[in-house]
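Follow-up to my earlier ticket, as requested here are the two runs.
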Amino acid sequence: MKSTIVALLLILLILLLEGLCIAVLHVKSLGKRFLYVPDDYPSIQLAIDNANPGDFILIREGVYVENIIIERRNGLVIKPLEGNSVVIKAKDEGRPVISIQFSKNITVFGLTITGGKAYRSAAVYILNSSEIQIQKCVLYGNNAGIWITYSQNITVANNNVLENSNGLVVQYSRNVVVIENNIVLNGVGIDFVDASNNMIYHNNFINNKQHVRSHKSVNAWNASYPLGGNYWDNYTAEDLKRGVHQNEPGADSILDTPYKIDDTNIDYYPLAQPLAFQATLSTPIITILTHTITPPTITLTQTTLSDECRASLILLVVLVLLVTYLIIVAQKTRKRVRATKSRKAD
């Protein structure tokens, strides 16, 4: 009986050590990490595949030939290292250069993205996603600079959108804010399809073949006075009046007559001069007029046990109770045997 108890105790010790190992191996980080490309991972895609929510993917200077897929992810920031110039060029021109699908709280910051040239391709393609921010990027030489579909709460800010067939395409999406972008030399500047309740203001529309194309969409094209709307290079009007109704004497850098896109889309405060944008890549929170763009909230790192580890610990407790029970039963059995032998001897 003693040998049996010793064997059980050894098994129990082994299981205890195994449970502790599982606990150590299943440490889960809840805070940000910095993943460096190509130091930690040779490609941007590999860094994304190995990232946790809240991680920053920092890219060193260079040209990266990839088609990047961000799918079912939450809370990533993808940007160059401070002072580095990063170009991402499509490996397959028939696919988006960066595709963001079924994701939330993703920031793409300060990249030059090109080569998504095929029909329905784009520099950045956003599908069924929310809280996506495309900031301070150069998007040129694509079928579309940014293609947004079935998404909401998207911010497109401080980008240079140049020489694409379509600067932006917005389909079946809402709460898209397009602010302080240079939208220049595209076939169509912005194309809205069944996409209403979006806001477009403080952008420069220059030398596009068609600035706006809108189908079954009603959107806001200006902020409140005196912030104003957009600059349209094909529109000239007087700037002699000021005020909410543009009926008070004095110029205010807002043209006195609204810019009419169609009957339901009107920029009521078109700007007299193009805007000069200023935003720094190093600023963690970029405030552009009344709209604030904030990177994902990062929590402090802490350690938690995985589900597997919890299961192992529960099993360990059960085994301890079982062994304790067996020891008690064995002791009682030994007492009964001794009592029986004692009666027979009498």
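Run two:
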Amino acid sequence: MNELKIGEHIIQLGETRKVNLPVAKLYTDADVNLPVYIIRGKKIGPTIFISAAVHGDELNGIEIIRRLINLKGFKVSIGSIIAVPMVNVYGVVNQSRYMPDRRDLNRSFPGSSKGSLAGRVANIFLKEIVAQCDYGIDLHTGAINRSNLPQIRAQLSDPHTLELAQAFGVPVVLNSDIIEGSLRDAAVATGTKVLLYEGGEALRFDEFSIRAGIKGILNVLRHLGMISKKQKMRVKQTPFIANNSNWVRASSSGIVTHHYQLGDQVKKAQILATIGGPYGETLGEVIATKSGVIIGKQNIPLVQEGEAMYHIAYFSEDDEHIADHIETIEEQLINDLSINEEIS
């Protein structure tokens, strides 16, 4: 497309623009706008959106976009990027996962221009941003007091989506069914291929997850031919695909002693954590039901019986090899990408 129109704004090829997309007013009569940052190459090509804070307390994605668009030498030569660092502006202001009407924005798509507040925001974002894009990367974290290992979740039965997920370059890709009412669900109707990136914990910056997110987005942009491939490339890391995962839950209530962390390999019947009482007595143990790799875990040292504690992914490959692979990539990212990295 020669012209890209978002709201009342027209952005031409070769132009970079910050625009505010009106959403709704607060009851104080103050306007609330969706911040949108557009970078257009000089040549027509793919259009991709990068979104963050669909859940307002998931802050890593905001920092990923902030660093990405300020990278030294970052230049889009072909196609267009539409970056939306705060989709749920209300949630970011209130440090809340939800919209003011207590609805989950990521269960409110496709929404309606005459629906609930969450539905109206979903509808505007879908029509003005998602529907204009060929691809999308939606950035998320774990919930409050839960951390996720950097991972891509996508519907891998689609060959093109699988190709993009592998290009992203994080160690774990999880085959994830599309949930009704989610952004990914609505994107199917617009023909937009969407990757969901998970990494870190709500209301916290996690450096590993931020760097993995930036690196992954750059990998996808290079794969699509939107940015230069002149930079010296490392050996391509092939992710491991998990077709199944499960949460292991607490056997009793009490104080937790964790024995395993994110990225660790676990074997069936191993003790993942011990749950004790306030006087030091052991009340229960959390046992792995299958062998796999921990891709999500609870961080708070207090637990209620039945509470989800460890998210374990199951692979057809050797789990020990995957755990070593995760550790290698983590070391590379910590020593590799900084906010001032040169792209060219």
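The only thing I checked on run two: The longest helix spans residues 319-336. Let me know what else you need.
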